Amino acid sequence: MRKTRLARPLFLIAALGLCLAAGAKKNNVPQEKDMGAYLMVYHKDATHSLHAAISYDGYTFTALNNDEPIIGGDTIASQKGIRDPHIYRGPDGAFYIAMTDLHVFAQKAGFRDTEWERDGGKFGWGNNRALVLMKSYDLINWTHTNVRFDTLDPSLSDIGCVWAPETYYDEKEKKLMIYYTMRHGKQMNKIYYSYVNDDFNRVETLPKVLFTYPKEGKEAIDGDITYALGKYRLFYCAHDGKTGVKQATSDNLTGPWEFDDKLCDPERIGCEAPHVYKLIGQDKWILMYDIYRLNPHNFGFSETTDFKTFTNLGRFDEGKMKSTNFSEQKHGAVTWLTKEEAKRLEDYWKAHPVKYGHRIDLSK
Fold this sequence. Notes:
Layout: E1 2-5, H1 22-26, E2 37-43, E3 50-55, E4 60-63, H2 73-76, E5 82-89, E6 95-101, H3 106-109, H4 120-123, E7 130-136, E8 141-148, E9 159-170, E10 175-184, E11 190-196, E12 208-211, E13 219-228, E14 231-239, E15 244-250, E16 258-260, E17 272-278, E18 285-291, E19 298-304, E20 311-315, E21 322-323, E22 330-337, H5 339-351
Parallel strand pairs: 4-21
Antiparallel strand pairs: 1-8, 2-3, 2-22, 3-4, 5-6, 6-7, 7-8, 9-10, 10-11, 11-12, 13-14, 14-15, 15-16, 17-18, 18-19, 19-20
């Protein structure tokens, strides 16, 4: 397990005066009544790195570090780039970030000689084999590890990809669970899950199928679980006609899931990477999705109170949702912060701005 600071594009083993004592944090985990801000994480194709933004109302977000990466993907990922970041606050008060270890433009960036890590004819688009897992109690000092799924067991040696990981705490098992999209070779994608250790640096169980799209020849990717109104709700991207967001429900975290064929997003073009976050102190939830067919990229948003009717809030900077100093973000996720935590992060990045030198010219 490696330790690192959030404050540099290159990772350093260090301790900051801003670091909170882990034990104290565990004994004083904030509840919803204590929360007053939101932290969004996302990546960009231009950097393949981790970016973050703060909001105090759940609608207007301002990027930390002036939208420069807060963590360089080339410092933590075996493929020198990360995608699909997800952030989760565990019952111990710690923050957990899970990301895809993948750089889709690594050849152009000079990180490898081939378009993909392995033969695209055999393993398909992207063909990554690892995830990046990170844990922190203060959002500044992090531990991180790379998990190679193809080496967990001989039965996984032929995996074509492992993508878009997310984290959830299983109350029944009393364990952290990660769930992710995976496929063997170029077969259909399915959503799998595994349990991980408390330090978030080791996968303890082999992948099990969490959800399979029920229509033959169609598939689901990018799962996102939230518990609301007495049900676990799995939102995902369905590759079925217009690529878009659908919902399945269950009484149990790991299923079985009741399939609903209705699209939840209002977009006429393809979108993926759904994520749901609750508005603090309100019985309202925001469904966010990456409209990947747009150029430039943007997020779309819908609001719901019953998970049956979704009111279109539009895209960033076209309606109620605002991105004050960033654009072309991809695959986002949101967690709650206290106002004190949010202000501490804002103050930190104002005092320690970092520019990330590596850029890819996507116009060529």
